[in-house]
Amino acid sequence: MSPDDLKRQAAATALEQVRDGMKLGLGTGSTAKHFVELLGAKVRAGLNVIGVPTSEVTRADAERCGIPLTTLDEVDRLDITVDGADEIDGALNLVKGGGGALLREKIVAAASDRMIVIADDSKLVETLGRFPLPIEIIPFGLAATRHAIEQAMASCGISGELKLRSGKDGHAFVTDGGHWIIDAHLGRIPDATRLAATLSFIPGVVEHGLFIGLASSAVLASPQGIRIME
Ligand code: 5RP
């Protein structure tokens, strides 16, 4: 079974939670794309749902699949957001943003009654941090913000290389919000809650990829079957 088969299985399991009339957050990434495709098939068969995409890529995918879309200006709360993750720990804290959509992903997840994370089980880790932590920043004052991030990390007892993410054109990768991303190569984040709070205080940091306390469950697919973490 390929990693892609596992991602689709996780997406199919999350889809079982979707009911007629629900308002859904639609995640970003290769796993979330499976969910959008499977949801689209249900919509074309008559399921009545409405979605809020977490990126322009997901918007395009959802439109192509025929899923009706709305915005968080039109609806107050969402019933469920289904999204992938780069890392998941045993407490359902996440690292997200490998695909660069962390800001909208976090806004949409926070506006949802439930966030279901879908992934193959390679994403489950004992301690977050092996995957470089994406930190979305304002381009203005890059050096000052980088310095402040280093100080924030040091105050949490960690250090690591900070790399400005490049896009396909060799220039800085630009998010849907017009920001840049610094990937922090930390190796291990012993206290993710503390680091999340510390990073949030930095003026040039728009958002970071630590999702603390946002996920309600995770659907993890492995060749041995599906495991639900709650
Ligand atoms: C995008 C994300 C993705 O959910 C994360 O990168 C996982 O992606 P994939 O399902 O392709 O492994 O956070 O910003």
CATH topology of the largest domain: the name is: Rossmann fold
What strand order characterises the main sheet?
Answer: 2-1-3-6-12-13
Succession of helices and strands? HEHEHEEEHEEHEEHEEEE
Total tally of structural domains: 2
Count up the helices.
Answer: 6
By CATH reckoning, the class of the largest domain would read Alpha Beta
Binding site for substrate: 28-31, 83-86, 96-99, 123
Protein name: Ribose-5-phosphate isomerase A
Pfam family, one: Rib_5-P_isom_A
Function: Catalyzes the reversible conversion of ribose-5-phosphate to ribulose 5-phosphate.
What does this entry look like structurally?
This protein has 230 residues and is α/β, with parallel strands linked by helices. It has 2 domains: 3-122 and 213-224, Rossmann fold, CATH 3.40.50; 133-206, ACT domain (Alpha-Beta Plaits, 2-Layer Sandwich). It is 30% helix and 26% strand. The chain has helices at residues 3-15, 30-44, 56-65, 102-110, 142-155, 192-200; strands spanning 23-26, 50-53, 78-83, 87-88, 94-95, 112-120, 133-137, 161-164, 180-185, 205-208, 210-211, 217-222, 225-229. It has a 6-stranded mixed β-sheet. Helix 1 packs across helix 2 (30-44) and helix 2 (30-44) packs parallel to helix 3 (56-65). The longest helix has 15 residues, at 30-44. The two termini are 25 Å apart. The chain binds ribulose-5-phosphate. Ribulose-5-phosphate is lined by residues 27-32, 83-86, 96-102, 105. The active site is at 105 (proton acceptor). It comes from Rhodopseudomonas faecalis. This is Ribose-5-phosphate isomerase A. It catalyses: aldehydo-D-ribose 5-phosphate = D-ribulose 5-phosphate.
